[in-house]
Amino acid sequence: MANLLKNRETQLAAVIVLMLVLIAFVNPDFIAPSNLLSVYTESSILIILALAQMLVVLTRCIDLSVAANVALTGMVVAMINSQYPELTLPLVIAAGVVLGTLLGMINGLMVWKLGIPAIVVTLGTMSIYRGIVFLISNGEWVNSHEMSLAFINTPRTEIFGVQGFAIISLLIIAAIYIFTEKRPLGREMYAAGNSPTAAFYTGIDVGRTQFWAFTISGMLSGLCGYLWISRYAVAYVDVALGFELQVVAACVIGGVSIMGGIGTVLGCVLGALFLGVINNALPVIGISPFWQMAISGSVIVIAVIANSRAERKVGRIILRKATLARG
Amino acid sequence: MDGIMSQTTQAKATTGVSWTSRFKTWEAFLLLITAAVFVLNTLASPYFLDPWNLSDATFNFTEKAVVALPLALLIICREIDLSVASIIALCSVVMGLLAEAGFSIPLLVLGSLIAGTLCGLLNGVLVTRFDIPSIVVTIGTMSLFRGITYIILGDTALKSYPSGFEYFGQGYVYWVFSFEFVSFLVLAAVFYFLLHRTNFGRRTYAIGNNPTAAFYSGINVARHRLILFCLVGLFCGLASVMLTSRLGSTRPTIALGWELSIITMVVLGGVNILGGSGTISGVVIAVFLMGMVTFGLGLLNVPGIVMSIIIGLMLIAVIAMPILLRRFKQRRS
């Protein structure tokens, strides 16, 4: 029991519940099951991207290009759909996912093969990908009337009252959970981030692991590119501008250590939900949306202070640094 | 991850090599590219080589460059500050409010500098007191500071600045040399002295190379980092004075996204993002390089977002090129 209380996920869940209770005092309708479900549905894209980011952060990297990736793949699928409305939806989505994967691979290759720090690579590709959106679209919008009905409505289809967005995010949560807990590559990501030197000497190719983290991050960003465009039914250059910070924030709040090696799927999902609840609750309880940014900023600061006590542990390096051996 | 990049650059910065031999490497490479861009620009547009045009071009990068100087020191020291653009915005709001209350120009400037330093102090305290990675802290304070400007301003703007205030952003010291540009040159010299000629600078490198060793050799690592965070905040305040004075108004979106171009300047200047190495001369050349590229493209009517593609490519290419070259050499030998 004491262990459960010390557990970060429990604490975070408790904070979310507390927040819901406080919101309910102002507006009881907010905690109606149907509304909670719609809050979850609204947070689906953030959840998926936060999980993708978690994999990258686990390996001691960071992917600042996710939002630009979403914008680019979103624009490409929207343009494909408006130019060739007869193309079946799975093919269009596949195009987005493949493109997103490739964009992620570009990041990953530069980190793996060239050894450029991830923050520099993704800072660069972030402006490049976003710029390409402008180049291919000429700065024009793709509006909802240019998209096919199937394109816009499929993720809204309800199964047992649950929207497609929510179902997709649930499936991805499950997949990432299995990946990080059971698959060798998933375990390697923890190992690579926890101690790259130790990972290197146990035969893990740290760079290759990072490459795959970026690839998966790109793949999920590609999927979210489609989800985002169909959710808001419009594609333009500034789609998801600045969203990468929300994504990183969700990870940090969820207890994923930016120094790598620490983080759970559950924590990450709770972190995303935490931001999702705040974003959806502010208008409901009559706080100006202008407060949203300052609140999520303070939450991040408070969360990292809370996390900082838990994650300090220093190992000793007795063998030669792995990075030198790679040369 | 950093092995390949840092070995040569670190050696260069830590051993007491002479100024000339330090200049032979990254700075020479950058200078060559800058010269090439200069020649290309001259060929591409007949309007490029006009003193007034060149002077106008300096305005779009000096404010960022003023922040790039202290940020270079901070990054060398293994920290980073992503909240710089938000601090600039918050300082601008402080000035706007002071101006509305009717305070005099020196007090506006002082208010901005103090506000900036306090923001930096908050970052520094969070990083050093709680031992949290600065990238996370400043992602948080980035939203926090920007968020406060949204709370105060909403969708309105502050623009009741007194006359005479426009000098900081629009005035000229002599002929084509603007106040902004001259201040940047003076500050660059000051920072060159600070980083390369004082104990403070040596400590910055020492901490960046190995914080633990620095600590055990008697350096107060936490205090040093705290000072650097405050310094970055202070210069955000200064940049905010220049920018606000140039624009003549404060909106919550002021300087939005600047942190990326400022960090790009620093990294392009050869400062290792993982700390331990970098020079002020490199950063200064990188500032001119970026300024020249954006100005040249502007003369050719290239839209801003396409420029950001080119700057992104430049950032990656300039860092990847030495790595690729070295690998190519290794393969041949």
Structure description:
The complex is a heterodimer of chains A (327) and B (333). Chain A has 327 residues and is mainly α. Chain A has a single domain (33-311), classed as Orthogonal Bundle (ABC transporter involved in vitamin B12 uptake, BtuC). Chain A is 72% helix and 1% strand. Chain A has helices at 2-6, 8-26, 33-58, 66-83, 89-113, 118-137, 149-153, 164-182, 184-194, 196-201, 206-232, 243-253, 265-284, 292-310, 322-326, and strands at 158-159, 162-163. In chain A, strands 1-2 form a two-stranded antiparallel ribbon. Residues 323-327 of chain A have low confidence and may be disordered. Chain B is mostly helical. Chain B has one domain: ABC transporter involved in vitamin B12 uptake, BtuC (Orthogonal Bundle), CATH 1.10.3470. Helices cover 76% and strands 2% of the residues of chain B. Chain B has helices at 3-14, 19-23, 26-44, 51-76, 84-100, 105-130, 134-153, 167-170, 179-197, 199-209, 211-216, 221-247, 258-268, 280-299, 304-332; strands at 172-174, 177-178. Chain B has a two-stranded antiparallel sheet. In chain B, strand 1 and strand 2 form a beta hairpin. In chain B, helix 13 packs across helix 14 (280-299). Chain B is globular. At the A-B interface, helix 6, helix 11, helix 12, helix 14 and helix 15 of A face helix 1, helix 7, helix 13 and helix 15 of B.
